[in-house]
Amino acid sequence: MKEKLNFIENIIKEDLKNKYTKKNLKFRFPPEPNGFLHIGHVKAMELNFSLGKKYKSDVNLRFDDTNPLKENINYVNEIIENLKWLGYKYKKICYASDYFEKLYNWAIHLIKNSKAYVDSQDSETIAEQKGTPYKKGKNSPFRDRSIEENLELFNNMKNGKYKEGEHVLRAKIDMSSPNMLMRDPVMYRILYKEHFRTKNNWCIYPLYDWTHGQSDYIEKISHSLCSLEFRPHRDLYDWFLKQLPDSKYKKPKQIEFARLNLSYTVMSKRKLSFLVDKGIVDGWDDPRMPTISGLRRRGYPSTALRKFVEIAGIAKRENIIDIALLDFCAREELNKTSNRLMVVSNPLKVVISNYESKGEELYGENNPEDKSQGERKIRFSKEIYIEKEDFKEISNRKFHRLSIGKEVRLKNAYIIKAERVIKNSKGEIKEVHCTYDKKSKSGSGTLESQRKVKGTIHWVDKKSSIPVKINKYESLFLNEMPDTEKNEEMLKNINDNSLEVLEGFAEKAVLKCKPEQKFQFQRLGYYIVDKKSDKSNIIFNKTVSLREKRISRNPQY
RNA sequence: UGGCCUAUGGUGUAACUGGUAACACGUCUGAUUUUGGUUCAGAAGAGUCUAGGUUCGAGCCCUAGUAGGCCAACCA
Predict the structure, then answer these.
(1) Residue numbers in A 84-143, CB below 7 Å of strand B
(2) Is the CB of A313 under 7 A from strand B?
(3) CB of A452 within 7 Å of some strand B atom
(4) Which nucleotide is nearest to A4 (CA to C1')?
């Protein structure tokens, strides 16, 4: 079979033909610890780690921690946990802050080569001088300070002699460049803010452009993969690398790919934190969030997430992937791996009038796709619950469930026939009375047990069933592309029904469930035991429903 | 009044140094089924943004246009 390579793998393949060997290859995943990782990051991780696996080269996990204003250790820990859960094995954990000293010395080298200078204007003035994409910028009046003066000022900046905003260090490139990033970008700013790792050792912090490429170089990264919006940064990336006094190693190559977008959700960290701050969701790990922690809590298996981003592929064009693909990946995995359980989410009482025994134990397969999972006992007796939706007094031919005078099989149990209903004063159905075919017991081998009836429905024994809480989710947004809108616009399309809490009844086998265990509730979908669930208060989160064929449920019948 | 990136069925990706479009999801049929699930068999759906050019031959190369995205943070 022909190997299907994405464009990045093709570049690497070419590089391998030329001046690179497999030993030269090295990758990195460089998140900023300023929030939770989302499914888009899984794409970046999968790319880097699968490349690492393919070429047997190392992949570093590097925290891009140059902005103490937004970053903290909790995010670092959550990210590490996410990688562990996803099963990505990195060579080592690095921090950009490990390189602060080296970066500082290299900055001095740039000053000495007249490639950097201290500017003493405020940020507004500097921004103004930068011009616009259509208009060239102007040189700063401080651009031609002497090397000695620059050295002294920069040293004083480092030693805390100035206030925030008083000076910055800038690269001396070209104020008339068509690329705004090349118009003397700021390399360092003064910030009196404690950093979660370097504490108060530094009061000047390097900015992204002066950090990233250099960090890649220090770690001997060969291919530095990032998203499309960094394309203009590449010119700067290369420029900085060229200025370094050190040229022992091969210079890393920045390659950009399109980030992942998912329909009906938002992906930008700014929007995600907005949802958290506004209290629209419960937190970063709310099951409706596209964060890794949220998807995990929702019940998506890590393997499904990885499979999903792998199928989605890597390219350079903007994309919005249909959420249906994610659900497909989840179902495919869950169908094979999750045990079945009968749970009634919206109960209707059924009395089997001709059932004389006090009750009995029946058996059900735990997973028809995996016989090694064995069977479980299921309690059956005279009174049971079925789904309200599974009964209609009068029905048409397409209704494969229970109705008066019609037969249906109770999964793993008997065939029953509905005889009459009992209604309350408002005319609502309170009970359905049925008769059962005693010889039709599932698996009993009798002729009657092999009878074909129109449908099979799930049920639970009324007396022995366990009440459970079920969180049912819909997408957070009603429109397909909420990410393209401003926060205020986005709010208008919030789905008010994205969370529905149901009280259901589960067969008693549910008592053995453990937090994060996944089940298929038969005929309903896939569910996970919430991480905060316990024996006295069992909580399930619905991951995704079973695939449903479009069937006409014409109410007039 | 600029620079850069992108353009292939509904969606996402393929098509190795040019040889008339493939895969997955989704959709639709049918079979099987004690889950309207799974599984199995099959179908429809694009002639590759537009116009030129090079070539025996272009989705791939060139030119121009159009459309979308990114760039004016002391964020990453």
Answers:
(1) 121-123, 126-127, 130-134
(2) yes
(3) yes
(4) B14
ipTM over 0.90: yes
Query: Are the C-beta atoms of A216 and A224 separated by less than 8 Å?
Result: yes
Contact A311, A260 (CB under 8 A): no
Q: Check whether residue A315 has its CB closer than 7 Å to nucleic acid strand B.
A: yes
Amino acid identity, residue A247? S
Residue type, A168: V
Q: Which helix (H) or strand (E) holds A423?
A: strand A415-423
Q: Which amino acid is at A227?
A: S
Q: Report strand pairing: A407-410 vs A339-341.
A: unpaired
| Closest to A243 measured CA to CA, from A346, A111, A131, A360 | A111
Distance of alpha carbon A216 from alpha carbon A435, whole angstroms: 73
A547 in active site: no
Distances in Å between the alpha carbon of A105 and those of A112, A297, A517?
A: 11, 45, 52
Active site residue A259: yes
C-alpha to C-alpha distances, A230 to A94, A168, A255, A268, nearest whole angstrom: 21, 23, 9, 15
Structural contact between residues A196 and A65, judged by C-beta atoms closer than 8 angstroms: yes
* A176 phi, psi to nearest 5 deg: -115, 10
A196-207 confidence digits (pLDDT tens): 999 999 999 999
Which residue, among A406, A409, A425, has the nearest Cα to A417 in the 3D structure? Answer: A406
- Determine the protein residue whose CA lies at the shortest distance from the C1' of B7: A317
| CATH code matching the domain that covers A347-463, chosen among 3.30.70.100, 2.40.240.10, 1.10.150.120, 1.20.1250.20 | 2.40.240.10
Q: In the predicted model, is pLDDT for residue A165 greater than 80?
A: yes
Domain ranges in chain A with CATH number 3.40.50.620: 11-257
Instruction: Determine the residue type at A387.
Output: E
CATH superfamily of A11-257: HUPs (3.40.50.620)
Q: What is the pTM of this model?
A: 0.95
Domain with CATH 2.40.240.10 in chain A: 347-463
Confirm whether A269 is a catalytic residue. yes
Looking at residue A479, what is its pLDDT? 93
Distance between start and end Cα atoms, chain A: 53
pLDDT at A484: 86
